[in-house]
Task: structure prediction
Amino acid sequence: MKITDGEKLILLMLSELYDKLEVDGEVEPDFIRSAIFSENTWGIPWKYSGIPFERQETPEIVKEVLDILDMWSMIERSYDNLSDDEKAFVEKEAAPFGKDPMFRGFDGNNESEYLGAASFLVNDLDRFEEFKGRDFNSHCPSVATYNRMLGVFKPIFENLNFQPLSAQNVVDIIKEKIHPENR
Result:
């Protein structure tokens, strides 16, 4: 959603009025403030889908973050459902990343737009609630790694037919965390 600077100011002032007057409406002033201050105004039509906003394209970074969160959600959920023997297999075959694989976030210094989008999706839009409460700062560059993982994940996912990932699928995806030059 494209909002001019003037409109941002008006929305922020209205949010303050909502709070001051203790208005109990459908629009959440804290959400509006968060969307404006974090520059995630694309999320306003997502939150308020009943309002007929002009159709706008989702930013590319948000699409990429959605793909990454979808992948990690599937990895974590599938891993949790593996037997102890299968988990041991994943740990051994995907070493050193196979033990309790989980989404660690994005680099706060160099991937802040990704980190911000992930945090906004999870904490403000209540998507991917399994990641709520996590620190999304991985403290190391992650986007390139996640994109390698997505290259393996997407073809597997297309053929799953709503089934969880197998132990071998998890291994194949997690092994992509190892840079190709180090294999």
Notes: The chain has two domains: 5-47, 60-182. The chain has a mean pLDDT of 95. The CA atoms of residues 15 and 28 lie 8 Å apart. The first helix runs from residue 5 to 21.
